[in-house]
Design a protein that fits this description.
Structural class: alpha+beta
Helix content: 40-55%
Distance between the termini: 19 Å
Shape: globular
Radius of gyration: 29 Å
Number of strands: 19
């Protein structure tokens, strides 16, 4: 079977010859050139960025004393404060000379692998590129907006690779930004409004994995293998749930190429070898995350908030994610991808989408799976499905418009361009409304790009002052408890931006610490049932609380507590604990001195002998010494740690250790990076020598630079001669 025809040059008659020599007639030249499409995509991206506040990073608000205060105007709803605090913690750790492996400021601490730091690394990298001119809070806003727009680049690269107009990328991007979806479906609501950054960022990375992996399997370009492996490792190190999608992508791309209706591609054996290479490099790169998950699988516990109770729920969610008009076009696009020859990216996307929906259905309704799969919220798999669905819908718009008009003997390319432009315009001006959410769930907004909560508010200014006041009032070696929020649910989680001290909150409790002492059920909730229970003397002592920051209803409870002394009043009130207990106690007595850092804890004092209690969450990596000698650590009934101490002076030190297995995982990751560099450098060096040799043979002036298209969209990859390098597709 012959391959699809080559694009027509704008400087030649509307005809081309395919690889078998047969002449193919095209009905018309494109109406819109590629440069104009790119300009429209950039204009759309800039307009969306402006609409969501990417160019408004600071604001001045009235402080509690009436003076004007300048604050970063970052996103502040739901999970955004949590992610800002994590990125700032990583920045501080790197400034201290070590990577962040244990996040000690949150609820007794948790291992980084529990909630990987992939996006936090991106934010710190952007902060460094900006030379530290913006605080992490403002950088977070920029990164989130860039993530929101990044699928547009992926869609466009995929369209160009398949010799489709760049307008396919424009239409897909318009649908992506215009349909908000629900809070777990990967659109505007999940990323910009709710701030579930890691889930969406990993899904976006998976889109690029599909692009680069398909390219590498088809043509064997080492640079494409490196791109696939790096983005796959990033996805795993951002959200381990990505492993499911990665397995499906590998199978989908392999099947799309192994069974395509052309016999001039790589053999199944060659495809398998190439896939194995990418899998191997990805596994090596992500080894620290993967090894930790395998070693400590039994310690990770999550509350399942979302599930599909029946297949009808899954179908409704698929409609909500992209809207009812988009989904039927995606079904057409899936069929187009499967049957049209020569469009390997579309074919791989179609096969992957079919497999991914089947995998979601099986995981949702057909199996209980292993321990981790039992806690898997399969609705959280929707963002990647949404990205593929939107792309295939845009492919369908182009293909159907081109086919109908070409069949009618009219200017197919012109009408197809107009169809893509019209769809993009309709999506931005009057986007379709998705089906309503079931009763009791958060309702879907009718349109995307609606205003969201930001942090430049008087309540945030007062919160910062309150946290700093609590830090000063709390005794050394104690924690601070924050109750209530004025901005969305999790404003309190930004407390680590204002003080480097352990914090506890009345919300967002960690489920893996199922022994945590408090008035909540770790199997069904993430918050205390009664905030007043946290102000009892037994709770304050159990968690070594030295000061309390309260707002709203918690103010009344704090004012009535005999265990607290008022320090400050405002939107947030501050109280000091009258008789605080330190994080480390020696046989029941407070430590004389304490130094509590993220991955290290030291305390000393006089002990009557017995057990020292360390009110930090137990984890297998902790190592303890007492007076310089190694000491055994025991997990207590409430999930903390204890070590034996002798009578008299006792010096205790705990470190979050790197053991032999961790070092082996790090070595594997280093080997993965070395392999990626070797693959990329070999490709560049070989192409450089080829270009240099070609110049010498043709006598090309040295001042004329040859373009090396690492993305595989250049003329050589499609069998064109050098003179046809600027030919663009019309179908």
């Amino acid at each position: 079977m012959t391959s699809s025809p080559r694009p027509v040059s704008s400087r030649s008659p509307a005809a081309s010859v395919d690889r078998t020599g047969s002449e193919q007639r095209h009905p018309a030249l494109p109406l819109i050139s590629e440069r104009i499409w790119w300009a429209l995509i950039c204009l759309l991206a800039l307009g969306v960025a402006y609409r969501v506040g990417a160019f408004h990073l600071w604001d001045t608000v009235a402080g509690p004393d009436g003076r004007r205060v300048r604050l970063p105007d970052t996103f502040a709803a739901v999970d955004h404060p949590f992610h800002v605090a994590r990125a700032e913690a990583l920045r501080r750790a790197l400034a201290d000379g070590h990577p962040l492996r244990w996040i000690g400021h949150h609820q007794g601490g948790y291992p980084a692998e529990f909630y990987p730091l992939g996006v936090a690394w991106v934010e710190v990298g952007v902060w460094a590129l900006l030379l530290g001119t913006l605080p992490i809070a403002a950088v977070h806003k920029l990164v989130v907006v860039l993530l929101f727009l990044l699928p547009g680049l992926g869609y466009t690269l995929m369209a160009r690779r398949d010799r489709r107009p760049v307008g396919v990328g424009l239409a897909a991007l318009a649908a992506h930004v215009a349909v908000p979806g629900a809070w777990w479906q990967g659109g505007y609501m999940e990323l910009i409004d709710w701030g579930l950054v890691t889930n969406v960022a990993a899904a976006i990375a998976l889109l690029f994995v599909l692009f680069w992996l398909t390219m590498y399997l088809e043509e064997g370009q080492p640079v494409a293998a490196v791109g696939a492996a790096l983005t796959a490792a990033f996805a795993v190190s951002t959200n381990p749930r990505s492993l499911i999608a990665l397995a499906v992508i590998g199978a989908g791309a392999w099947l799309a190429l192994a069974f395509r209706p052309r016999d001039d591609g790589p053999s199944p054996a060659a495809l398998t070898r190439r896939l194995a290479l990418v899998v191997g490099v990805t596994t090596a790169l992500a080894a620290p995350q993967l090894v930790a998950l395998l070693r400590f699988e039994e310690l990770y516990y999550f509350v399942r908030y979302q599930r599909y109770d029946a297949p009808a729920d899954y179908l409704r969610a698929s409609l909500q994610a992209v809207s009812s008009p988009v989904l039927p076009f995606a079904v057409v696009g899936l069929a187009v991808g499967l049957v049209c020859p020569g469009r390997t990216i579309s074919r791989a996307a179609a096969v992957t989408l079919a497999l991914y929906t089947a995998a979601t259905a099986v995981l949702s309704f057909g199996t209980q799976g292993a321990a981790l799969l039992q806690q898997l919220e399969t609705p959280r798999l929707m963002p990647f499905q949404r990205l593929l669905t939107v792309y295939l819908a845009a492919v369908a718009v182009h293909h159907v418009a081109d086919w109908l008009t070409t069949t009618a003997g009219r200017r197919g390319a012109t009408v197809a361009d107009l169809a893509l432009l019209g769809v993009a315009a309709i999506m931005m001006v009057a986007p379709p409304v998705a089906p309503a959410m079931p009763a009791g769930e958060v309702p879907l907004p009718d349109r995307s790009l609606y205003p969201v909560l930001t942090a430049a508010l008087p309540a945030q200014a007062d919160f910062g002052l309150a946290v700093r006041a609590a830090d000063e009032a709390a005794s050394p070696g104690t924690a601070v408890l924050v109750l209530g929020s004025q901005i969305s649910w999790h404003q309190a989680l930004s407390a680590p931006l204002h003080a480097e001290r352990p914090f506890f909150y009345d919300d967002w409790l960690w489920y893996w610490q199922t022994r945590h002492y408090g008035d909540y059920d770790p199997r069904a909730a993430h918050a205390y049932r009664d905030d007043a229970s946290t102000l009892r003397p037994d709770y304050l002592a159990r968690h070594a609380i030295g000061a309390v920051v309260v707002t709203k209803e918690a103010k009344r409870d704090a004012a009535a507590s005999s265990a607290l002394t008022p320090v400050r009043t405002g939107v947030y009130d501050v109280y000091a604990v009258r008789a605080p207990t330190t994080i480390v106690t020696l046989a029941g007595a407070n430590a004389g001195s304490s130094d509590v850092a993220s991955q290290r804890l030291a305390a000393s004092g006089t002990s009557a002998g017995g057990e020292a209690l360390i009110r930090r969450n137990w984890y297998p990596r902790w190592r303890a010494t007492v007076n310089g000698d190694r000491a055994a650590i025991t997990q207590t009934a409430d999930g903390y740690m204890s070590v034996p101490v002798p009578a008299g002076e006792a010096r205790i030190e705990l470190r979050y250790a790197v053991d032999t297995i961790d070092w082996l995982a790090r070595v594997a990751s280093g080997i993965g990076f070395a392999a990626a560099i070797w693959l990329a450098s070999g490709r560049v060096w070989r192409r450089t020598r080829e270009v240099a040799g070609s110049r010498r043979r043709r006598g090309t002036p040295r001042g004329v630079a040859a373009t090396i298209r690492a993305s595989g969209t250049g003329p050589a990859e499609h069998g064109r001669s050098p003179g046809e390098a600027e030919d663009r597709p019309v179908q």
